[in-house]
Fold this sequence. Notes:
It is built from 4 helices and 4 strands. By secondary structure, it is α+β, with helices and mostly antiparallel strands.
Amino acid sequence: MFKPGGEACRVCTSLLVGFNGSAPHIKQNLNFAVVAKASVQEVKSWAETRYWSNLNILSSGNNTYNFDYNAEDTEENQLMMMNVFRQSKDGIFHSWAYEKMFMPKGDELNPRQRDQIWPFCCVFDLTLDDRPGDWFPAYSYD
């Protein structure tokens, strides 16, 4: 989502707007959390400016979670990664990660690893013009 002292990712911000609305429904069946490398104070401040009242947002600033689970590269660039963990009688285990971002990109400008959870991409795909290839969401539209 963003690293300490950095600017929040516009793509992550857009995704989390949708998840904020869906979180109460998701939480009926799952534990659901968002992890950012920024400090607790930075994450909390950003969440408040976005009115994210339904998300459990955690800081991984004092551990190696982001690197360990492919949400950060060796240069500490933050990467969008979804991970699923399952609890069983034997413990908690990493059971799934969205790894499409590691596929060869071909002619596309942007990877599509987030598309299955990003509603407006699905809407763009229904149109004859497809999605705008070089467009990214803004923090706000005035």
